[in-house]
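User: Some background: our group keeps a shared notebook of sequences we're curious about, and every so often someone picks one and asks for a predicted structure to add to the entry. Today it's my turn. The entry only has the sequence so far, pasted here. Could you supply the structure so I can complete it?
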Amino acid sequence: MIAGPRSDAEPLALINGRIHTLDPERPRARAVLLQDGRVAAVGDDADVLRRRPPGCRVIDLEGRAVTPGLTDAHCHLLQYGFTLLAVDLYGVASLDEMLRRTAEAAAGTPPGQWVVGRGWDQDRLAEGRWPTRRDLDLAVPDRPVLLRRVCGHAAVANSRALQLAGIDEGTPDPPGGRIEREADGRTPSGVLHEAAIRLVDRVIPPPDRAARRRALEAAVRRAHAAGLVGVHTQDVWDPGQIQEILDLYREVRDQGLPLRVYLLVGHRALEELLALGLKTGDGDDFVRIGPVKLFADGSLGARTAALSVPYADDPGNRGMLVHEPAELAALARRATEGGCQVAIHAIGDRAADAALDAFEQAAGGGSAAARRFRLIHCQVMRPEQWERMRRLGVIADIQPRFAATDQRWVERRLGRSRLEGAYAWRSLAEAGLVICAGSDAPVEPIEPALGLDAAVHRTGDDGLPPGGWLPAQRVAPVEALGWFTRGAAYAAFAEHEAGRLAPGFRADLAAWSHDPLEDDPACLRHLEAHLTVVGGRVVHCRLP
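Assistant: Of course. Here's the predicted structure to add to the notebook entry:
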């Protein structure tokens, strides 16, 4: 089913560096020898040079810091690749700018083709409101447009797109979704939430194989340039996609773009996964089946995250549960019985309750901790839920960058009294939880340096607020780095071969422009990968 990896990397010795191994047995070294895709030796320059085999390439690091290669523990890499090729709406500050970018993109799109984009956030727009189909019609009246919010849990479509999707006054809200209406209560406004977006998605012609290949190649190159050696990525959403996605990653890998891929499979493809006889862990060193991914709720920014108390800025709204709790638990049991790890997206505390119930029921009489269930996002929780996670051995799968970008509006959504359990990364760690970290790209940029900086400083791109937002939740650089290395390895059942630089471990590492553990922490925001090595192969290099 999944072809074996190529192992043609030449022996490589890195010397004259500041190597942070994250190995308790030997935390610091000056040199490392990589051979046959594994770490062969860690030590001083003389020892490594003495042990190098014939034909070994030697790289002088000139004092640069080296860490184990980082893994983004939660992203959507193929989607991210398409955003690199679509309308870029990240950071747009006004509706006028959003419409201008969309119109410019449409002008370069062949007639009849869809215009798609992502990245807008209504809370950033100067107009202070959601975009609508009428806005988009002014910019692009003659072809269909679908623009996803930054979180991906809401989108806006123009009138042509709604027409093609068959969305009109008589269209009911689909299960797990909502079609926003205009003031008359009937006419679709163009804004779609959660499952309602799929009503439009299903009429967009799917990209062909060549387009998917271009998108994935662009995403893998960007990941390598960011110092990433692996991703836990959800690219399978629906039946019929599993084999195609596996083949696509294999093809890109075999063309010289290796990346450690732990593939999350959406619950709609669960039965196909089981019918194929696949389960978590199947695959090889480069492409493996990961967890089955379930959704308990939506997003906080779109007010679809499921809260136990209504939104402070939308009284009466407690968000949405994508599945009823019994259905969520049944899906988790089905996946677990099929030999699959389960990861559940839960942003609000009401969704976290449903997810933790599902994990406990899925474990049955067995050890929940051995299942390594993952709670994705953990954004709004109550302290007693952290203890329940610890007891069940649930991994906290967090996105540190969210604390930097969401802080502008979180208090409006929740009210001050509920901030104690919001984006509480340090509290999660102090509760004794294993933590892995990712970007959720394309929701956020894929560069892990931004996640490290956000975990350590909790400030926005403008460096504000001074001292950080909810500063008691700041963590030390070494702890944040561990989330992208050791934590990610544990979450993928790979802690015995990944996440540290030690003999026998994978030859995955990155050399950096600054030392993320010893230089001024302010440098984290500007951290750049000067060298990325995957399986002993140099995949990115900015060294002289």
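Suggested note for the entry: Residues 253 and 315 are 50 Å apart (CA to CA). The chain is about 30% helix and 20% strand.
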